């Protein structure tokens, strides 16, 4: 076992109200930190009391956003086991992001071991009411205090934990989504396939415009032709057209979602036709007019599944399945949530017990 | 005058060796800080001793890179006056970046006043040897500790100062530049025209590849067709073809450089033909083959002007003006540097005396 120093807090925080957790607002008593220096590599893994990060004002992360992150969840089962959902996939993806952002690769085994120990230390923070979970946020920031535009030579890898509520209070609920026709999230050759802050900073404006129009999320089209569907806010997107479930193929500017991958595997196992391919917004509009557009949903760690009740594209309002949750959407949600929280058998070996 | 509290340090740092300053490695004794809260707006402007920034690990800047910055310089004239070069343009551009990044606008007058007071406090840090100056880095970071992907409700606006050396030790020197054919810095509808960290994070990889090939900088083509010239690293670009100076028009994905604008004004004043228009990499290659490509240079606050001695595009090596500094390039450099450091008359009212 890899040696991780642990310094326990002497000043435990009060736990938040489990009925009012929201998302990413409360944090547990401890955090994990790992340092990188050019001559030492990644070193000094440690669990310490949750505390502020103190950085020189010239630290590169503040200026050039050299940073990557991940998001995954731990669940408490009814019989009080703690399950992590596909954590190796997250650390693998973190290293893919690292490569794009010129950040040195982390040791994925060390990260997983550290995560397990951290969650174990803060185990009593994992909420148990239905739909709640412990959200885990690993992230890396460039810390050297130097304003030259070049890759940093010092980094910190940090993991923090946040008990989160059910994304939608009354179970899943169809959302209304605006298809963005001006702003762009990612382009070929850009950073769209990496989980890096700049993608999210760049998406805020579209999100703000959608909100003003009364929409909950933005659907992003490709950055080159503004024709092909890419993804939604922090979710991948799926459409059911004429009985076949279609999701945009991973083209280099879409984040390879782990929920997306799980959904594809679930659909295959259930013998429902599923295609990963390029799909234009026009094809969606046409399918809608032909009555062939049966369901649409987003997938991501935070909400697991968000059924899409309405898509707005220019002047066209596309109402999907009467703004109700589709059958396949509901089945996928029930199945995945069941596997994640341990109430269904995990045929895929996706979950890891602490 | 706007009231800015000032707390002076009791522990002055040692000044660095003026012959070995480099860029953005040393910082002065003080910094300026201004806070933003939703209910209070921007408030509490203050000059304090240079010190670390302490932030919750969940602060939005670490995760979603909601941040903008600026870069400008102060010069010490031979008769010991302190000149700021077009600082209002920088604060104006900061607010343009703010708009794109959903950051509340700052009061440009307050920022300028704060900058003057800060530079005055650290006046003895302004280096005086030829080519040196005081680099000023204003920046804004999103500070609220919340992991939801949405615009922050708390920000800090900070200014730090760094005495910097001449970008090239022996005066200006032609650089070799690789034209990037795979990675993309910015796309239409993206954040290219804003000075925000994500653009720089995304550029690191191209920069690293160029370096490995022995090139000093990357020339970015447009994100849509990878055909039109955009800009170089942290500089705008100019070509002299058949007696006319051409620079890419501001198209929404190029940073509107203040040095760029100054060069255009200087060229017009000198009655040298100058065009802002779309220019493809093929046009450059053709001009080279026809013997019409006379000079090329980058412009930016850090280096002022970088003559370009070589451009590499796919298998083509374009040697410009025998890898020597062109006449117009040298004239522009001498003129602008002269205005900036007060040795030439400032016909344009670009400089502000402290
Ligand atoms: C941009 C983006 N797309 C898609 C996803 C979904 O990925 P995952 O299913 O791994 O959470 C996320 C993250 O949650 C995201 O940030
Ligand atoms: C991407 C980029 N382009 C161009 C420039 C040049 O702008 P300015 O002349 O205002 O320094 C900069 C900044 O210095 C930059 O970061």
From TrEMBL, chains A, B:
Keywords recorded for this protein, A-Z: Amino-acid biosynthesis, Aminotransferase, Branched-chain amino acid biosynthesis, Pyridoxal phosphate, Transferase
Pfam families noted in UniProt: Aminotran_4 (PF01063)
Enzymatic reactions: L-leucine + 2-oxoglutarate = 4-methyl-2-oxopentanoate + L-glutamate; L-isoleucine + 2-oxoglutarate = (S)-3-methyl-2-oxopentanoate + L-glutamate; L-valine + 2-oxoglutarate = 3-methyl-2-oxobutanoate + L-glutamate
Residues that span the membrane, as ranges: none
InterPro entries, per database record: Aminotrans_IV, Aminotrans_IV_CS, Aminotransferase-like, B_amino_transII, BCAT-like_C, BCAT-like_N, BCAT_family
Enzyme class (EC, first level): transferase
One Gene Ontology term of the molecular function aspect: branched-chain-amino-acid transaminase activity
Keyword field contains Amino-acid biosynthesis: yes
Requisite cofactors: pyridoxal 5'-phosphate
Domain of life the protein comes from: Bacteria
Record flagged with keyword Signal: no
Entry's EC annotation: 2.6.1.42
Pathway in which the depicted protein is active: Amino-acid biosynthesis; L-leucine biosynthesis; L-leucine from 3-methyl-2-oxobutanoate: step 4/4; Amino-acid biosynthesis; L-valine biosynthesis; L-valine from pyruvate: step 4/4; Amino-acid biosynthesis; L-isoleucine biosynthesis; L-isoleucine from 2-oxobutanoate: step 4/4
Family (UniProt): Belongs to the class-IV pyridoxal-phosphate-dependent aminotransferase family.
NCBIfam families: ilvE_II, PRK13357.1
Name used for this protein in its record: Branched-chain-amino-acid aminotransferase
Source organism per UniProt: Metabacillus niabensis
């Amino acid at each position: 076992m890899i040696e991780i120093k642990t310094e326990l807090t002497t000043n435990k925080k009060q736990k938040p109200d489990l009925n009012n957790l929201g998302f990413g607002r409360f944090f547990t008593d401890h955090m994990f930190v790992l340092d990188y220096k050019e001559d030492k590599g990644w070193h000094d893994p440690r669990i310490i009391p949750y505390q502020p990060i103190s950085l020189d004002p010239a630290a590169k992360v503040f200026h050039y956003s050299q940073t990557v992150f991940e998001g995954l969840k731990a669940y408490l089962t009814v019989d009080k086991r703690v399950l992590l959902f596909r954590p190796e996939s997250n650390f693998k993806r973190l290293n893919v992001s690292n490569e794009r952002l010129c950040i040195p690769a982390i040791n994925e085994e060390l990260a997983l071991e550290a995560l397990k120990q951290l969650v174990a230390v803060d185990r009593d923070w994992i909420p148990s009411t239905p739909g709640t979970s412990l959200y885990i946020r690993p992230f890396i920031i460039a810390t050297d205090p130097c304003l030259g535009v070049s890759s940093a030579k010092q980094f910190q890898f940090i993991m923090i934990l946040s008990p989160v509520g059910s994304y939608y209070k009354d179970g899943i609920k169809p959302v209304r989504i605006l298809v963005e026709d001006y702003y762009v999230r990612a382009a070929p050759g850009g950073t769209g396939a990496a989980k890096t802050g700049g993608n999210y900073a760049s998406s805020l404006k579209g999100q703000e415009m959608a909100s003003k129009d009364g929409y909950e999320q933005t659907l992003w089209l490709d950055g080159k032709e503004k024709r092909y569907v890419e993804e939604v806010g922090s979710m991948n997107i799926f459409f059911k057209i004429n009985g076949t479930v279609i999701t945009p193929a991973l083209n280099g500017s879409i984040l390879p979602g782990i929920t997306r991958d799980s959904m594809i595997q679930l659909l295959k196992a259930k013998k429902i036709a599923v295609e990963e391919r390029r799909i234009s917004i026009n094809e969606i509009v046409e399918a809608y007019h032909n009555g062939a557009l049966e369901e649409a949903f987003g997938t991501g760690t935070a909400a697991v599944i968000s059924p899409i009740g309405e898509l707005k594209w220019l002047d066209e309002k596309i109402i999907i399945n009467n703004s109700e949750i589709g059958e396949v959407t509901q089945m996928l949600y029930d199945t995945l949530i069941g596997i994640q929280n341990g109430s269904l058998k995990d045929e895929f070996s996706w979950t890891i017990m602490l």
